[in-house]
Amino acid sequence: MGQLAEILAIPGNQGVYERLQKSLADGSAIAFIGAGASFPLYPLWTELLGNLADHAIAHGVAWDADKAYWLRMKNPLQAASQIRKKLSDQRYQPFLYETFKDRIGSDALAFTQAQAALVRSNFKAWITANYDPGLMEARRVLRPDIRDTGFTLWNQSFPMQRWTSGEAFKTPGAHPVLFAHGHFADPASIVLDRESQKAYRQGPYRRFIENMWLQHPLVFAGFSFNDPTLAADRRRCLLLTRRARRAPPHRNYRP
Fold first, then answer.
1. Which candidate, 193, 166, 248, places its Cα nearest to that of 52?
2. Among 63-72, 80-89, 209-218, 222-231, where is mean pLDDT lowest?
3. CA 84/CA 195 separation, integer angstroms
4. Mind giving me the DSSP string for 71-136?
5. Which residues contact 43 (CB under 8 A, 6 or more apart)?
6. Cβ neighbours around 55 below 10 Å, total
């Protein structure tokens, strides 16, 4: 409680905390979850890039100097793109599968404490920007009241339309899960580098992201606000918010 008191002492946090409590009580909030919630079972950006670089070196398509250069780059998406070109998808995609595959049957837990806490909370839905199945395993083990055992990938057109329209939330007790950047079992769906980022700049997922930022209470967990993919979505949201404020039908909108 001491730590919470320190957080609430920061100007503005008390009101935000009260809104969070209300949105969890009425089940209206959506959790937007970053890679930090999957750590330490799964790597964060710096470790992931280092491991990717080591993979390229092990296959003789890069050198230690290349790794040092990639890790110095300010844009991790660009670094991942360069490593991917060195490896080719034939080596790149199996690496992603092995890195983010489930931990069931290993000595480690199949999900993290953070994922467990997020699943226990009364969110309307969970959106994960990481690629591992820990959130699904936590939901399976800790929320037997949720009958839905499936999930949606960002590149599935019809399911994404249901998320955008709100149909995905209407079934009582559904609490759906969306893998916003792909899933380890389908490495081609993983959004990790600049090339893969281009894949969802239009279409159902793009429309959903715009709708989500403007219309749903969001709770962010496991993100650094320097996260490159989150930063891109945030810039897009600010642009849309400015447009919404100028548009007559949305005069009363408040962020």
1. 193
2. 222-231
3. 10
4. HH-S-HHHHHHHHHHHH-HHHHHHHHHHHHS--TTSSS-SS-HHHHHHHHS--SEEEESS--SHHH
5. 35, 51, 99
6. 20
Output the pTM of the full model.
Answer: 0.86
Tens-digit pLDDT profile for residues 143-189: 999 988 899 999 999 999 999 998 999 888 889 999 999 999 999 99
Alpha carbon distances (Å) from 19 to 3, 13, 14, 24: 19, 10, 9, 9
pLDDT single digits (tens) 93-126: 999 999 999 877 655 568 999 999 999 999 999 9
Which amino acid is residue 223, in one-letter code? F
Instruction: Answer whether 164's CB lies under 8 Å from 170's CB.
Output: no
Contact 130, 38 (CB under 8 A): yes
What are phi and psi for residue 179, nearest 5 degrees?
A: -90, 95
What is the percent of the chain where pLDDT is above 70? 83
List of residues 6+ apart from 234 with CB closer than 8 A: 225
Tell me the C-alpha distance between 126 and 178, whole Å.
6
C-alpha to C-alpha distances, 58 to 1, 125, 145, nearest whole angstrom: 48, 40, 46
User: Residue 110: what residue type?
Assistant: A
How many angstroms separate the CA atoms of 126 and 146, rounded? 13
| 113 phi, psi to nearest 5 deg | -65, -35
Residue 37 CA to residue 135 CA, distance in Å, equals 9
Output the CA–CA distances (angstroms, integers) from residue 90 to 48, 102, 131, 189, 203, in the order listed: 18, 21, 19, 14, 27
